[in-house]
Structures
1.
Amino acid sequence: MTHGTVVVTVNGEATDVPEPATVSTLVSRHTGREITAEGLALDGSRLGLAVAVGEEVVPRSAWATTRLAAGDAVEIVTAVQGG
């Protein structure tokens, strides 16, 4: 059940996320794709992302269960090929 929103900082910008807020819901909003409980794109495509909350990398398998709290600093890093 949604009870409102929580404000977190994502890549340096304040962002409202609906409660209960998880890393998975944030990644879904960021990518525009549905995310499975295992942290994979529902459509089977590769996400190419890593997520850290408070400077701790969150394993993809924990995205659905990692709750976000007001004021959390989240970094979403996209893999880029090249050199």
2.
Amino acid sequence: MNNNEIFLNNKFSLSNKIWLKPRKDTQELATNFQQVYQISYPLAIFLAQKGLEIDQIENFLNPRIKFSMTDPSLLLDMNKAITIITNTIINNKKVAIFADYDVDGGASAALLYKWFENFKIKPTIYIPDRDREGYGPNIEAMTKLSLDHDLIICVDCGTISDNPITKAKKNNCHVIVVDHHQGGDKNTKADALVNPNRLDEKSELKFLCAAGVTFLLLVALNRELKKFEFNVPDILLYLDLVALATVSDVVPLIKLNRAFVRSGLKIIEMGKNVGIKSLIEISKISKPINTNHIGFNIGPKINAGGRLGSPKLGVELLIEKNQDEAIKIAKTLESLNENRKFLENVMIDKAASLLKKDQLKNEFIWVADKEFKPGITGIIASRLLEKYNKTSLVI
């Protein structure tokens, strides 16, 4: 069979790439899917190429939390984290949350903040400045937080931040890391490192974003606190934040992630989160809300604060309860996002002009300019990759 034959009456994709016709075994499997589930041929081909078995199709097309959920305690250090946080709540101790400046970090921080509020604890949220402090926990910030708090929870960061964590612990402050970035192992300096991508972790949950891992932590905590007769919140109502982070962080929409997003989109449409609701209103997004709305509209607006020097705005929006205040923050983020797009276009033009013709002969291209905004260089590199189809670096 010639794999370069026309597929579905189209030889080229929208980006002018040649379609490759599916292999014969893939076509046969797709035909089986099509007959059993009464679905279209393109969808059946997509599912077959995903490597799904026929008994997995139903949960893939209609994912549900209860069929996709796993026991959170199977993750390494989860029980350690549960013990520390449970004692923190019982003894009404002070909590700080150190979060990354993107949507995943902000949503993870908001999840924890909303959950702790149910137990009369109002955590301090710290988001580092991207330009001044860079990514992840730093010694100055962690030391300062440790002097005023009994527990610091690092979300979407901290896996390999041993020095800042060590400094914090010297002040008798517990440190828990909830992350999904690769690295770390049993030798971590944190009191607990809950991360499906830690190097000694055998979990099959490596596709989760930090908010997904945080949600599993809350599931385990609710289960534990019920033993002490605490009234625990319905964390299924927090799935809007998990869906927001899952889509925005561009993690694979498979297994539990699909269930998170499907359920979370329904919560978003209910308008439970005032901040997300405000962004939808000012963006004039019509229902039903879908992943495109999150990935290309809502998410970039929340990210804009972290990219352009106002890192805490995103999480402030996600925990805001007052509609008027939420609208104000949402409008500020919208303005920052418009500025981000303007700067992005300027930087793309500048980057393209800096590229020399002989560079385009290589498989790898790079450009550097002191005027490039650090919070946008990653986007520019992606645009150059799309334009030239070459691995790109922008600094």
3.
Amino acid sequence: MSRINLYLKKIDAGSPVNLNTFHQILPKQYQHRLHDLFAIEKVSKFKWHLTPKNLSIYEQLKAESVAPTSRVDAAKRGNSHLVRVDFAPLLLRTAHNGELTTVVFCKDQQHETENLEKTGKVNSLLVIENRALFFQLQQTFEALNYMTNDHWDIKDWDVAMGEGNGAANQLFMPFYQRYERCAFLLDYDLGGLTTYSGIERQCPNTNFVLPDNAALLKECFLLSPESDNRLASAIKTAEKYNFLPLVTLFRHTKQFMEQEMLLTLNHGDNE
């Protein structure tokens, strides 16, 4: 509930409010009309009783103070960005035929159900946040096999392109939960860890793809953090999840790593 709605409920209940604060949070078009809208009676140093004088304008104020329910509703009020988009597309490569397909998720329902039915034939989903890696999957899976002790076979995975922190879009969470295993390949930096944190809280079946041998990626950590605080926050978050390879790499290199560096790995070094 918005702050102004809390004040309006107090006014409806006959409870006193802080007049200065209420005036500050009123929409601008009403601020200069405060004394036209209300009969004002002081009851203490900071508290005032407000009694609506013009009920039609007061009801209009109450209606405008209710949070918009959609982007269209918000646009009618002058700012569509007050509300999250109701739709979100997810580009997928399905394991059963290797084709690319787009599934559009909606706040109220799922669209393109025929495309969604093509997914979930396997138990595992890999979400890749980076376009370069998504469209070069053969090299990406070679890199995953190189830097981890797991066996990564592209035939065993549905693969989704997460588009940066868009991978944490709330509309995608039920889709992630369809899979027994959902792995996320993200930048090794504070942004990637923050994106994963937002997902992991709702989808316990997820894991953050990490190198099993930190030394294999040491030369790939070339991105300087914007500040020492961001590096410290990344280390703290990695420690929280017990991502020990990342903790080691952050501390030793003082740098972050972008996903594109996985495409530069010399896989023969690990043979």
